Amino acid sequence: MFLKFLKVILPLVLIVLGIIFVYFFFDEGMFWGFPIGVASIVLGWLIYAFGDRLKDKENNKSN
Question: Which residues constitute the domain of residue 14?
Fold first, then answer.
């Protein structure tokens, strides 16, 4: 259950928060919203992309 949260839900939350930061805060003139939003989107994508490696490592430990 924890791996599903780590691999699917957390990246989606980070990506949505990143879009909110970039779109709303940067549009309102708060320029700090852009780097925070981009970093959040990239972090969410990286967790989603490399989440399979976590699952593979757990499967190898149990064998």
Answer: 2-62
